[in-house]
Amino acid sequence: MVGLTDGREIMFGRIAVSLLLGLALSTTAAAQGELIFAVTEGVTYQATPKEVRDKFTPLAEVLGKATGRRVKIVLVPAYNDVRAGLAKQEYDLAYIHPAHVSMAEIKAGRYKAVAWTTGYTEYTASLLVHGSSPLKTLDDMKGHTMVTPDPDSITAVMVRAMLRGDKLTATHEREPTPTTVRVITTRYQDAVPFYIDNGFAQGGVTAARSVVKKWTDNGGKVLVNSKPVPIKQIIVSTKLPADEQQRIRDALLTLRDTKPGRDALDAVGYKGFVAPNPDVESSTIAYLGL
Predict the structure, then answer these.
(1) Pairing with 193, which of 35, 102, 183, 261 sits 20 to 30 Å away (CA)?
(2) What is the pLDDT of residues 74-120, one digit of tens each?
(3) CA torsion through residues 223, 225, 226, 231, sign
(4) Rounded CA separation 53/75 (Å)
């Protein structure tokens, strides 16, 4: 028969073991810490920080469950700010709209792509002109003015790739010469048609499908399209353990298989995510001149 003193010792011993186990688990969780999830939407679309955060919160919760770690969303609207953070690998994973930003990091080896957004793997920039315009090729833009969105937008980067491909020289002078294309910029994609309609430019480039559709529905035409590139990529730091990278990738590629995953897709407004194509990734890095 166990005495009272011995019973208390056993009870206190069990409590001590439980406390130590709990402390060990807490210490492990603290050591793992939280995952920092940076979100950078495009600079040429209008959305409030609250709207962006609300979109991505359910997705962060799914990724948190997949990794067993709390996922903290950090909104980084400015491209140069996210570049600085990525350069220091301050983010464990990031959703990056502009392909030139994410792929520069992939080329540098600091990050790798784990998923591309369905429906945005062949993003093209379209050069719009009036339906009555005599211009027929990109080369015909020489001596004329072209308007593009923000100069650091992926659309503007694609425009520069298009001009390089046709060996055309861009100028930002007040007037183009017979051998150059004058390029001016506006902040938002949906402002591009205004510049053409009001004679500030003879052509304008946008990658917004809604803008292109409205333009062509009203009698305008698309002079030329750029080579397609994948945008809206989710990348992970190469500092993350390989198994954790894989869990994040698996969770993204199988979102449609669970209700929380489908709810996350509904919130973010996308159909799903697909595995990156390494060959397309390499060719895009070269095409964009990164």
Answers:
(1) 102
(2) 999 999 999 999 999 999 999 999 999 999 999 999 999 999 999 99
(3) positive
(4) 7
Residue 286 has which token pair?
A: 């070269």
Measured distance CA(223)–CA(220) in Å, rounded: 10
Q: Model confidence over 20-43: pLDDT tens digits?
A: 333 333 333 334 689 999 999 865
Long-range contacts made by residues 48-55, C-beta under 8 angstroms, separation at least 24?
Answer: 49/75, 49/77, 54/267, 55/267, 55/268, 55/269
Closest CA to 101 of 272, 285, 228, 283: 285
Nearest Cα to 208, choosing from 277, 259, 153? 153
Q: What are phi and psi of 145, to 5 degrees?
A: -110, 135
Query: Scanning the structure block, which residue is given the tokens 């591009």?
Result: 192
